[in-house]
Fold:
Amino acid sequence: MSRLVTIVTSTTLALVLWQGLVTLADLPAFILPGPGRVFETLWASRALIAHHATITGAEVLLGLALGAVLGGFSAIGLAASPMARRLIRPMMVFSQAIPVFALAPILTLWLGYGLWSKVAMALLIIYFPVTSAFFDALMRTPQHWLDLGRIMGANRHRLMWHIRVPAALPGFASGLRLAAVYAPIGAIIGEWVGASKGLGYLMLLANGRAKIDLMFAALIVLALLTLLLHAGVDRACRKWLDGKAARHGPA
Amino acid sequence: MHPTPPELVIEGSARIGDTPIFGPLRLCMPAGRWTCLLGPSGVGKTTLLRLLAGVDDVTDFTGTITASDGLALPGRMALMAQGDLLMPWLDVLGNVTLGARLRGAPRDKERALAMLNRVGLGEHARKTPEALSGGQRQRVALARTLMEDRPIVLLDEPFSALDARTRAQMQDLSAEHLMGRTVLMVTHDPAEAARLGDAIHILSESGLTDFTPPQGAPPRPVDDTETLAAQGRLLALLRAPAMP
Structure:
């Protein structure tokens, strides 16, 4: 209950500051509309925004799912093979030096203006954090557990699946939590570069037509979607990934 | 425990790069007996145990590790280590049958339950390790070790994290259930060595020193006068700056 009060209070404070800025600086609506105006537009254009939000949501969820699967297997592959580590890790680090933004036009060229170029952007932006967090956790299995497994006669394969992977799931979970926040950024970049649907497209369109209120309305919806996604992923991670390692009390 | 436990001998020296870990030494672990290796931290006790277990990949060991029956060691050992090493994602029964899971062998749940009953935890089979006390967790680790049913058992300070009362209980329980196996226990606790050792050796920077264990079969009573005296002498030896 007190958490709800905190949220309501801080939201109200943010709205008051926003309106205060608009009023005191006497800003015209095409520079910064007040919150009232933005929410009016949000309500009036709810069907339009919901349509574009669905598209962006689908892109983000697909990118997140593919990134989680791909990142998960990559991390396991890297952890299992020293050869893969030597050959592929430098490549992965180098790929991080390339701004993903710069790749967006190429992805659009390759995959077209539709859904998949945005899914690929979301995937690209989350692949490294997911892989990296899971890989680091896989390389930090407590030595005693590994000793015990080897003395019990486990081969490398079983050691990986029955000890290293389950022990590293909390690391995977922290990678996924980051990914939940990054994935929408990827999708939006993709939509900016070339799209005919999605919240990023809508924001760009609204901006170009000086409909700043619509731009802000779409932005707020995007932020809410991201928060919702993060909360969902966080909850799923608690339940399925790090819950077992962290839970206390009788099961 | 079907096969007769062998006597084990480790003879040699160990180093990591240019850093000597322990000098030339010869440690004999009599068949079916409980050997305690006592020493301060950092003298290579755990390294010696890991070399025996065949899981040390970084230490250069020059020497031999032999069993009196001439058979190879892998697959004939069980380990109980510092902490209980229970997997938090498995329940108690899953932890006891971990060895079978790791070897891809069928899991004998009835036998696992029998082992849990032997250590008094039959009712806790479906609990997660977090739901258990430190002493109960260590008993699960003992049940897991018994489940492996190996003639050689390596103990690496398994009870160091327990409170005094629980530690004494675990010592009794382990001594009872591991009787007749060739056991090497690495410990820094003189009281533990004095209670449990059929043979006691002190490992220090200057090498291995043999110590005559107290009379009486282990586990010796915690208030036995001779055991307490031996504990005192062991502590004095441990504190000596350097032994000749």
Q: What stands out?
A: The CA atoms of residues 97 and 109 of chain B lie 7 Å apart. The longest strand of chain B covers residues 19-29. Chain B has a mean pLDDT of 90.
